[in-house]
Amino acid sequence: MSRLKSIVVLGGVLALLVGVGVAWATTGATTGYPQPKEVVPAQKQAPFENRYVLTAVGSGASIRSGEMKFELEEGSSPQFLVGISQFYSYGPTGEIETGLFTFYPPRELKNGKGIGFTALKVGASAQYGQVTPDGELQLFTPEGDTVKGQLRLHGGGPWPVEFKVLGDEERYTASPPAARQIHEAEPNNPGWGGEASEYEGDYELVNGGTDPTAKAGTLGPVIGVAQGLGVKGSVVTAGSMTVEGNPAVATVELETGGTKRTLTLTDLAWQGDQRVAKVHAEGPDSPVVGHFEGTGGQGQVKGNLVAGHSVYKVDFQLKG
Amino acid sequence: MKTKFGSFASLLFLAAVGVLVVAGCGGGSSTSGGGGDFVAGAEAACTTANQKIAALGTPQQEEVTAYLEETEAVIETLHKEVAALDASGAAEAAYVEGLAEAVPILTQMGNAARSENFDAVRELSAGLVEIRLGELAEGAKLKTCAEVPVSKS
Question: Where are the domains of chain B?
Fold first, then answer.
């Protein structure tokens, strides 16, 4: 029954998606989302019922461009807004990937600042009705035809976003124009600390989870591989890291279930407690497949290590 | 006559003892009767399956879909081979059932990977964890089937 419901919801969402690039519909959205528990006054929601194009976004989001649309759910009482967006993102190896998100339920932001929504990721296959929480979109009170806000996705952010309201006749036949990248202050000091002795050495993983493959028999390896996928942070069961060299390079060994993976981190940089690096799958000279963003200091480095389709949440402690 | 009667009685006694022995053999253990064949057959099938799984190694991101398809094929074959054996006890039947449950989940994981919905792949894999196939294999006294294959790369 729940699967049937999710397919119905997804069908409505996809119908709304078709509407993103076409003329403004006056009948409202029919997503099938249920009435939200929190009621947002109609006058607070009304200014956001529009079509938008993404004009600026924080560079950390790796989003090239995007379109978005908010409509009132048809037949809802009290009425509530539902949004859908199509974001074109830079993939880890440079290709453009398409991500579909719906925004529901709406809620008021504190101090009347605007309106916020849970960002729900829409899977590409309707067979699974995959509409899963993946972040948050906040839209601040519109200023003319500009709406600023902030976006959290895949456990990252918040990143600043800026949208332009599209007129009834404005539409894009292909993908929308590239949004301006808002460059945040990024760490640029080499290494992961002022002195090499602060961060060089052998680390142990201190946030290892239980091994989901332990009692899985022949299915163990496929579980290990699958548990290492996705953007929500893989279950790392064991790991280690060695940082050495000048310029410093980190070799990271990670285990998800029985699956072991070796990654190399280069271009280590720091600023305050921020720690970043580029991630390679096959040695420091191989192509970059992702990035590391986290915090560190006093022998600890922790954060999200992105490698292709996997995000590993790691917490390393320098061995005494 | 008395001798003939005595011989006949002896034969009856021996037959009765034989029946009791056979009946006794069938009662206490879940792996006896056809079970011995089941254990040997299942262990042989698992040895082959584990070797194939181990040979697949650890896939790179662009290889995940193919990896899942190949794993599904191996588990499907394993299920067919083990299901064709004469499972005689509840533990053996539970292991066969565990394999049967795994196949459609692997199909769904492969479909999700083809749609590049890797979060769904991961979420679906929780269904495989819940089967606890290794534990079911241990319960059926299938040592090789209980082992987690070690990938070669």
Answer: 1-30, 31-146
Per the CB < 8 Å rule, is A220 touching B106? no
Which pLDDT tens digit goes with each residue over B24-58? 333 333 333 445 699 999 999 999 999 999 899 87
Three-state secondary-structure class, residue B33: coil
Q: List B residues 75-94 in contact with A (Cβ-Cβ < 8 A).
A: 75, 78
Question: What is the three-class DSSP state of A123?
Answer: coil
- B105-109 CB contacts, 8 Å cutoff, 24+ apart: B106/A222, B106/B68, B106/B71, B106/B72, B106/B75, B106/B76, B107/B72, B108/A127, B108/A128, B109/A222, B109/A226, B109/B68, B109/B72
Q: Does B137 touch chain A (CB under 8 A)?
A: yes
Residue B7 Cα, gap to closest chain A Cα (Å): 56
Question: How close does chain A come to B68, measured CA to CA in Å?
Answer: 7
Nearest to A134 by CA among A102, A159, A178: A102
**Beta-carbon separation of A216 and B131 below 8 A:** yes
User: Where does the pLDDT of residue B21 fall: very low under 50, low under 70, confident under 90, or very high at 90 and above?
Assistant: very low
Task: Give A6-57 pLDDT, tens digit per residue.
Answer: 434 444 455 545 444 433 344 566 677 889 999 999 999 999 999 999 999 9
| Number of A–B residue contacts, CB under 8 Å | 146
Q: What is the distance between the alpha carbons of residues A165 and B58, in angstroms, rounded to a whole number?
A: 46
User: Chain A closest CA to B105's CA: distance in Å?
Assistant: 11
pLDDT at B141: 95
At A153-174, the pLDDT tens digits run 887 778 899 999 998 888 776 6
Distance from C-alpha of A135 to C-alpha of A244, rounded to nearest angstrom? 36
Tokens of A291: 């990035």
Residue window 124-143, chain A: list those with CB within 8 Å of chain B. Answer: 124-125, 127-128, 130, 132, 134
Q: Are strands A114-122 and A81-90 parallel, antiparallel or unpaired?
A: unpaired
Residue of chain B with shortest Cα separation from A226: B122
Q: Would you call B3 an interface residue with chain A, using a CB distance cutoff of 8 Å?
A: no
> Can you list the domains of chain A with their CATH numbers?
2-182 (2.40.128), 189-318 (2.40.128)
User: Residue B3: pLDDT above 60?
Assistant: no
A309 falls in which pLDDT band (50, 70, 90)? low
Set of chain A residues whose Cβ sits within 8 Å of the Cβ of B59: 225
Q: Nearest residue on chain A to B142, judged by CA atoms? A: A217
Terminal CA-CA length for chain A: 54
Alpha carbon distance B118, A292 (integer Å): 20
Q: Least CA distance to A256: which residue of chain B?
A: B58
* Residue among A123, A227, A281 whose CB faces B120 most closely: A123
